[in-house]
Amino acid sequence: MSSAVGTPAPGAVQPMVKAEGVHKSFGHVEVLKGIDLEVAPREVMCIVGPSGSGKSTFLRCINHLERINAGRLWVNGHLVGYREKGGRLHELRDSEVAAQRRDIGMVFQRFNLFPHMTALENVIEAPIQVKGVRRAEARERGAALLERVGLADRVHNYPNQLSGGQQQRVAIARALAMEPQLMLFDEPTSALDPELVGEVLDVMRGLATDGMTMVVVTHEMGFAREVGDTLVFMDDGVIVESGDPRSVLTDPQHERTRSFLSKVL
Ligand SMILES: Nc1ncnc2c1ncn2[C@@H]1O[C@H](COP(=O)(O)OP(=O)(O)OP(=O)(O)O)[C@@H](O)[C@H]1O
Ligand SMILES: [Mg+2]
């Protein structure tokens, strides 16, 4: 019974994320009504859908910030939040959940930087505190990451001295500093002034080119079309359709998708 769980068939590439019948309720309200999907290593999956359809909740489940009520979720072959033993699921301890979460970078709409720390200090905090990286090494790597997101000249600035786009790029560098295997983005450009959106999308495009596995909730259809390998349309807690972004955007198969796209394109 238990042997099949999380064990891919020989020769198959193990998905970076696999969701099987994921259900999530808040009280009596069912927000996720059975989500099935797979994200392959190096894949960029974009998720779109109306407000309240469950996109953020699903991302938070991947990261085990929310506990699912039914179904199963794996990240890189590991059951999220549980260990399977003798065909039964046992909940992981908080420390074990934290260890799982360490491999997943998350970037939110609001950048959530530490206001009393410089860009560099924000980036090196977790590697030092959580991973025990030596300060000198963390600073060196942190500076390189800030350079990678185009902020070599902003290393010693505090968040309130940075634009929204710059703050979001620091947030991305901070997530990358933990060397995640998977990056989750929840509307990373929605809080930005329009002229700052491009610089953040450029950084994300670079990450995708470098082979990072990414799940991106976004309203940026241009980004989804150009960078996404897969586009998922969610509505009311289910995946209505998914596929190659160009096909979904130009030839949606479902009325709900058509109606949504007609409002956002
Ligand atoms: N902690 C919570 N407690 C109760 N209800 C919640 C909670 N978090 C989310 N919800 C509800 O779950 C539903 C889905 O919310 P979610 O934030 O996942 O939607 P979304 O697709 O990300 O929407 P948006 O595009 O507005 O960000 C909403 O009806 C929301 O009110
Ligand atoms: Mg959301």
Automatic annotation (TrEMBL):
Pfam families recorded: ABC_tran
From the UniProt annotation, give the residues forming the signal peptide.
none
| InterPro entries (alphabetical) | AAA+_ATPase (IPR003593), ABC_ATPase_HisP-typ (IPR030679), ABC_transporter-like_ATP-bd (IPR003439), ABC_transporter-like_CS (IPR017871), MetN_ABC_transporter-like (IPR050086), P-loop_NTPase (IPR027417)
- Main EC class of this protein? translocase
Q: Which UniProt keywords apply?
A: ATP-binding, Nucleotide-binding, Transport
Q: Quote one Gene Ontology molecular function term.
A: ATP binding
* Catalytic function, reaction form: a polar amino acid(out) + ATP + H2O = a polar amino acid(in) + ADP + phosphate + H(+)
SMART domains reported for this sequence = AAA (SM00382)
Gene3D superfamilies given in the database record: P-loop containing nucleotide triphosphate hydrolases
Q: Provide the transmembrane region boundaries.
A: none
What are the EC numbers?
7.4.2.1
Residues forming the ABC transporter domain are 17-261
Q: Which family does it belong to?
A: Belongs to the ABC transporter superfamily.
- Name of this protein: ABC-type polar-amino-acid transporter
> What is the protein's species of origin?
Blastococcus aggregatus
